[in-house]
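Appendix B: complex inputs.
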Amino acid sequence: MTVPQPTQEDLNERAAIDRSARYPVMFFFTSAAAWLLFATVMGFMSSLKLRLPGLWDECAYMSYGRLFPVHFNALVYGWAMQAGIGVMLWLMARLTRSRIAHPVAVIVAGHLWNAGVALAVVSIWFGAGRAIPLLDFPGWLWPVLGSGYALTVVWLIPMCLGRRNALFYISELYLIGAAVWFPWTFLTANLLVGEGAAPVAGAGAGAWYLSNLVYFWMAPIALAVAYYIIPKISGRAIYSYPLAQVSFWLLAFLAGWTGISRFMGGPFPAWMAAASGAASIFILLAVVATVANLLLTLKGATKLWEYSPSLRFTVIGILMLAVWSVLTALGSTYVFGRNLQFTHFVAGLDALAFYGFFSMTMFGAIYFIVPRITGSEWPSGDRIRTHFWFSTYGIITMVVVTLVGGIAQGGDLAVWDRTFSVSFTNSVAYIVGRCLAWALITWSNLVFLQQLALMFIGKGRKSAGPTLIHAEPGEVQSARAAAGIQ
Amino acid sequence: MDPAEDKNLDYQQGTISTVELHDAIRRETPLHPGERGGVGITVIVLSSIILIFGGGHFGSSLTVAENYIPAPRPSLDGSEAGAAQVVWIDKWMGEGKKVYNNCIACHQASGLGIPGQFPPLVGSEWVDGGTKRLGAILLHGINGPFKVGGQTYNQLMPAWNNLNDEKIAQVLTYVRRNFGSLPEGEDGVVTTEMIKAAREEFNAHTAPFTEAELLAIPGDAQLSGAKVNLETGEPL
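Resulting structure:
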């Protein structure tokens, strides 16, 4: 199918949209990257505490019980959600062909969100946390975070209403889904863990919320990015558009059922864990269909993987989504889950979801978006390569180490007369592996933050050509030019 | 390094120059609306596997939860006395209930059968009487016509001797204790030992029993074997 090449007017329009998005989107990206660096340093330190429990032991603020939630909340609310919101704003503006009408209002709302995250982190650090993963912040904070989100995402509504694009693209569907599902899950979870709620209900709601944050918010945004970037960069149409729509609705119907299986065997009615385990397996239908669709779209253009940073990060992110959902599905069956429950494996899966899958996809989007909104190219392809490989090796190390460590630790915990300290001593090697993984990731993020800061202050490369991971050989370049690909 | 260095004027002036657009924008390919590619066989096969696996998980995890009996564990000082123990008969009955799944199609979960078609177990003189007749029926089956509760049934109940002795003992215990109305002082327990003995006793029999053959066995005859302690399952 041939699509008319854009006219000069189209190009001007693109530039105008990008310009309107410049400050709000860059605000979200840069503050997100700063939180990311903070979060990964905290991740490293909390892993270190597991290996050297005596370190800083006179200081309550540096205890594992506070460092880890600080790391996890900063990673998710500080980095992942802000990067997601920035991507959402830009992508929606481009897809609907609307400008961001009030950039200042968006930035103000962004400050509200950042203040909420900072308060959450400080409260946890001072010991006021609630000890439910990702709902750790004290109860009075959720309205702050919620309104920060609402006041930002509300600007998608005028964009959608004033849309001037005849094509309603699949990515828009995913973005709208993500935008409306998050407030629902956030509100439900916070009301269920609020004052006076049963503690068991709180734990269940926390597990449900964590899984829904991935399937109902991160996955739709990441898939919106993938359905945008892969066709954009390869110059090919989505392999099967109907299949993309079917996977969206599968996700919509199944995501809300997942999560409780984290506590299977716990004090919940048996059907809850059974239904949620089954949903975690059934949702693989959507994941398989989506990943197959995206890879088939890319088939024949895989050579671009060598050069394009956006494509490379997006594709690896989507592959990690597949790995994460398969491991989660396995972990929610009795056969595998009964040994892996409450071990390093669970922490590794969370890192895989929030860092391996979502963050990598967001990096792909950021590598695509930032040159457009700042009007300059990324300073160094080598640095992008460093960022990619350190992140990838870091997360692969994390997953392998926690999976093997989880099996070992679960085996130890399952033997009734083995003391807890034995199971802990046995897992020391794996804890060292976790530290190593976080160190690799921290280094990759330092590199990323430096690149993004250069772009932010206008020190990007001024050039007609994109910054690629490897310089393209002449014949690839001319073949692409002949095919009319970017 | 690039000949076009420094030619980007996109944001240098307050307005957009129509000539010097930022190149990232010029380079972009337009989005295609998408195609209608066929789904590969791999995706279909994978999806079927996922559906089967997921459904199986749902069913089995409900059953696992329903039949969950915690393993006995000793108390903190290592002694088994005083520790929470699973009563042997509860476990025996639980296993019997599982084996009874084989019987549900005809006798129903309620044990009431289907009037006129399949005889009931509740209120049946064959169940309430001695274990010898019951063991014979289970091991070799029964061919109609025969009477249960005054009603004649013309059916063939197949032999279940493919089940091992333990399973037959468990299901008979379940049927007698759950559906039967046993005489005072009778605990209704059938042990593996009893079924083993019955298997030897009726070894010569190949065809299903007829009513006349079964009636030749005294109604209160019991299979030979020791009675057991219901708490521990040990022979008394």
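The beta strands of chain B are 142-143, 146-148, 151-153, 156-157.
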